[in-house]
Amino acid sequence: MKLFLTGCTGFIGRELIPLLISEGHKLTIISRQSEKKIKMTVNSSEIKVIQMNPADSSSWNNEELQSSLQSCEGVINLAGEPIAEKRWTDEHCKEITNSRLETTKNLIQNLRNLKKSPKVLINASAIGFYGSHSQTEFTEEDIPGDDYLANLCQEWETIAKNKPRATRLLIIRIGIVLAKDGGALGKMLPIFKAGLGGPIGDGKQWMSWIHRTDICNLINESIKNSSFSGVINGVAPNPVRMNEFASLLGKVLGRPSLLAVPGPILKLILGDGARVVLEGQNVQSKKFKKLRFKFIFPTINEALKSILN
Q1: CA atoms of 54 and 31, how far apart (whole Å)
Q2: Residue range 143-181, pLDDT digits in tens
Q3: Which family does it belong to (predicted)?
Q4: Does 131 fall in a domain?
């Protein structure tokens, strides 16, 4: 299948793109990175790279891009600045918002202008849709929360729903993605390997996570299986408390995990962005049971052993 990809050259894309190539798909990759940089990590004749900023509407007036859109059969949109890596200054919040909303607006507008619509659009969202709560268990049937991330996710999903009528839409509310070369785990590993790791905050907050291989397999399966539509929570079936996660991570690494990272210190580093890891959410998916999707790594113990051994 000919696929059109935005936001797929980051942390998830490092595993997703090779998987899609191995499945026989031909890819057009829209990225702010250069073709040379992308092909250093993925050397394949089955990819075409168009360097541009997809959040800039004027950059879509490109003959090569429009030709790729006209012939594409599926679209994957994972565009978005990382949420919990910097302080939430006004400027950074604008980057977080625009990288998602403006990119998706431009994508949808261009898809609606096509003579022939793609068969499927897979659009990212996040479990931040539900807001944070220490006790409530959230599923796809729950209403959105009422904070910055919840409002952002709600608007992001609303834009995606304006896709062409003939295009099947799957919105994946992605949890904390685990792999050792980036994301939350990538930042924790050096600290834990030095024996200085431990739970963040009080350790009681929930982590709703997914192994990167499983989220990539979910996206891959969604391309070819029309049963995958609507909204699905991209999380493993067994969320854990932060203190359990820290304990297991220390155990797998053979290091102590006793030194908690105080919430005020994290707030000093990340500002409001610290809420993402300090408050947490217990998110489950009812959809996975109906779809009979098989996780390779359903438990945190299996996931960490796979990643670190």
Answers
A1: 7
A2: 999 999 999 999 999 999 999 999 999 999 999 999 999
A3: Belongs to the NAD(P)-dependent epimerase/dehydratase family. SDR39U1 subfamily.
A4: yes
